[in-house]
Amino acid sequence: MSLRTCLDLECNDHITKLITFCEQESIPMAVATSSYREHIEPMLKNLGLYDKFVAIRGREDVEQVKPAPALYQLATEDLNIAPENIFAIEDTVNGALAAEGAGLNIIVLTSEITNDMDFNNINYYAKDIPYEEIVEILKKEQKVK
Description:
Blueprint: H1 3-8, H2 13-24, E1 30-32, H3 37-46, E2 55-57, H4 70-79, E3 87-90, H5 93-101, E4 105-108, E5 126-127, H6 131-140
Parallel strand pairs: 1-2, 3-4, 4-5
Helix pairs in contact: 2-6
């Protein structure tokens, strides 16, 4: 993916609202991506989201990318939060498998590209729910703080 293409990406409105909520509630966040940081960081900066994350972990940080859990394990260490107290927001099966392998709770939010993927073998907490429902889950699960 070219840098130009990355900079043209838009952030899902639910994700933008969720990031704002987490920031306001002092819930720390990290990015765990199978992409190179050099591709992701400019996009996050362009969207005004870069400084909202404790850490950004990319493929250069691990030997194996998703579905291996290593990226999420590193992000968990960066957050200094027990895996069972973390919610991963994932849009792909490989990402959900990685989060599951690292012991995280998973909320699946598919995109136009991933909405036909089969998540039936993933133990996810919720799938394709709006921002408001995600916030209710986070409020209910006080352990995320």
